[in-house]
Structure formats: structure tokens, C-alpha cells
Design a protein that fits this description.
about 280 residues, Protocatechuate 3,4-Dioxygenase, subunit A, five-stranded mixed sheet, about 25% helix, globular, binds benzoic acid, binds fe (iii) ion
Length: about 280
């Protein structure tokens, strides 16, 4: 049998021919697209072997920074806008439902379950006291009782509990009341940098970008018959609203955090959940 050798012109077609043998149709589609785009990228950039190895070293470092407290690959996806692109593709439906945004790397499944109205902040935590309240409704405008509401935020020093010793703090899980209402106490969100002491931070600095995120509170709201909503509420007036390092800001999620007469902050937001899709159908690109 004649041995073939491949050139810049013929190599891509051969790689594609081989990945098209994958028995799973979706994997076949994903792999073929990956090979086409990756080869196009290399043809466009024309890296030297040293440059290509530098790229491989960057991805290797990114993996080495990952453990059960730090997810550098999520951070890479977030800072390259890929997490928000996936979010836009999957939840970009418009309409009256509350807009979603990215989950981020600091969600913890299994936060303390607290009764409605509780303070999610342990005594001695830095930050300005704040109350957040509102309702959860479904797409028909009816209150959603018993929705599972996860909230989490950075503390007044700009750090999440999982970024420092001391255990879980500034996060909780609630259930909405029979009237769909929710309320809890927290600290007024502050702007903070995404973790930038690793390879992603190096990439941000090398490309002249800031690591800052505008102040926000994270929400994950789940209820039977509704699509799970992953979103944030952002603080109106924050100086980083227009330059979020991870592209997560949506205008409809910016909220006034007003100062009360007693010097504490308060914000209100009414969430609207989408009806859950019966079956996921995949649209062709
Ligand atoms: C966050 O909001 O917690 C976050 C999101 C993306 C990257 C880093 C942090
Ligand atoms: Fe955050």
C-alpha cells in the first residue's frame, strides 16, 4: 500500500475524514467543527514551533491551577466571552422572563438552608448591611411558591468565602413563600477582581485588560415546571458596569441599592421564570 504524506493543503481533509468515523452524530459534528476551526486558526496565525509550545504551556498551566476550590478553565472561558456566548445561545429568548448571566466559579451546591428573611452574613464580615427582597413569578405572572433560591456574593473585602479560610459565608439557600415572595439580608455588593494570580491573570495583563467585575449578587432559582434561572443583580452606578472582565452585565439586571434612613441599603427585584421546555431540540447552526 502506498504511504501517503500530507501537506498544508491536504492535511485538514484527512483529519476530517478520520473524525467523521465517530459513531455518535453529535460528537462527529463537534469534532469536525473543532478540527476545521483549529486548522483555520493555525493557518491564519502561522505560529512558530516555540509559539505553539507557549500556547500548550499556557493550557497546561491553566489545568495545573484547577482544584476543587479554583477552576481556572471556567475563568478562561469567562474572560474570553465564551461562557456568555453559550448563555446567549441557550437563554437568549427575549420576552418577559428575567435575563440570565454566567454562573461563575464560586457557586457551591449545598449552601446553608436559611429561613426567609435571614441574614446570609456571619458577624464580623466586612461590608455594608443590605436587604434584598421581591417576588418570583412564572411566565404567566403567577407567584411561584417554594422555589429554591441560591444566593451568593463576595464580602465587603471583594473576596468570596471559598477564597479564604473560615468556612461558608455570604451564601445561602432559601425557599420562596406561598405568595412567591423572598427576602434576605446580605452586604451591599462591591466591585472586585476575578482571580488574577494565575495564567488567566497573566493573559489579562498581557492583553492590557482589567480583571474587575462590577458589584453583583448571584442567584440560581429552580422550581418545578420552570427553567432554572442563573443570574446576577448588579449595583446601579458601579464604575465597572461597562467593562466587566467576563461580559456578564445585562441592562435589565442593574438595580438601585438605595440607602435607608437607618444607613442600610435595600434593593428590590421581581424575577420571572421561563416555562421549562418539554424536550430540548437542537437548532442547526
Ligand atoms: C463571579 O462573579 O463570581 C465570577 C464570574 C466569572 C469569573 C470569576 C468570578
Ligand atoms: Fe461574583
Amino acid at each position: 500500500m502506498a504511504i501517503r504524506s500530507f501537506s498544508e493543503r491536504t492535511l485538514t481533509a484527512e483529519v476530517l475524514r478520520r473524525v467523521r468515523r465517530a459513531p455518535d452524530a453529535r460528537l462527529r459534528q463537534v469534532m469536525a467543527s473543532l478540527v476545521r476551526h483549529l486548522h483555520r486558526f493555525v493557518r491564519e496565525v502561522r505560529p512558530t514551533p516555540e509559539e505553539w509550545f507557549q500556547g500548550i504551556r499556557f493550557l497546561t498551566d491553566t489545568g495545573h491551577w484547577c482544584d476543587d476550590r479554583r477552576q481556572e478553565f471556567i475563568l478562561l472561558s469567562d474572560t474570553l466571552g465564551v461562557s456568555m456566548l453559550v448563555d446567549c445561545i441557550n437563554h437568549g429568548g427575549g420576552g418577559a422572563a428575567t435575563e440570565s448571566t454566567l454562573l461563575g466559579p464560586f457557586y457551591v451546591d449545598g449552601a446553608p438552608r436559611l429561613p426567609m428573611g435571614s441574614n446570609i452574613i456571619r458577624p464580623g464580615t466586612p461590608g455594608a448591611p443590605c436587604e434584598v427582597s421581591g417576588t418570583i413569578r412564572n411566565a404567566r405572572g403567577r407567584p411561584v411558591a417554594g422555589a429554591r433560591i441560591d444566593v451568593w456574593e463576595a464580602q465587603g473585602d471583594g473576596l468570596y468565602d471559598v477564597q479564604k479560610p473560615g468556612g461558608l459565608n455570604a451564601r445561602a439557600r432559601f425557599r420562596s413563600g406561598p405568595d412567591g415572595r423572598y427576602a434576605f439580608r446580605c452586604v451591599r455588593p462591591v466591585s472586585y477582581p476575578v482571580p488574577h494570580d494565575g495564567p488567566v491573570g497573566k493573559m489579562l495583563r498581557a492583553t492590557g485588560r482589567l480583571p474587575m467585575r462590577p458589584g453583583h449578587l448571584h442567584f440560581r432559582i429552580a422550581a418545578p415546571g420552570c427553567e432554572t434561572l442563573v443570574t446576577h443583580l448588579f449595583v446601579r452606578g458601579d464604575p465597572y458596569l461597562d467593562s466587566d472582565a467576563v461580559f456578564g452585565v445585562k441592562r435589565s439586571l442593574i438595580v438601585e441599592f438605595r440607602r435607608n434612613r437607618n444607613g442600610e441599603y435595600a434593593a428590590r427585584y421581581d424575577f420571572v421564570l421561563r416555562t421549562a421546555a418539554k424536550k430540548t431540540s437542537r437548532k442547526k447552526p
